[in-house]
Specification:
alpha+beta; Rossmann fold; 3-stranded antiparallel β-sheet; 17% helix; globular; P-loop_NTPase
Length: 82
């Protein structure tokens, strides 16, 4: 996961029981880049953002936001994520 990336996601997966909300998402967002998640209701947008913010646990995949895994945030990291 490169240093020029603000967000790096590989194989992100999250399910709620039998309902799969996010299934194998890969994406990279470079520092300074503007990025939007678009899709219909139930597409997994909110779930993805909450995982990136460290508010929701993922079931699988690798995630890095500002160089750290949001599943194990530091206080400094939290202040950087707006």
């Amino acid at each position: 996961m490169g240093n020029d990336l603000a967000v790096s996601v590989k194989g992100l997966r999250k399910a709620y029981g039998r309902t799969v909300a996010v299934d194998g998402l890969d994406l990279d967002v470079r520092r300074g880049e503007v990025f939007a998640l678009l899709g219909p209701n139930g597409a997994g947008k909110t779930t993805t953002v909450e995982i990136l913010e460290g508010y929701r646990k993922r079931d699988g995949g690798e995630v890095s936001v500002l160089g750290l895994d949001p599943a194990a945030p530091t206080a400094e990291w939290r202040t950087r994520v707006g």
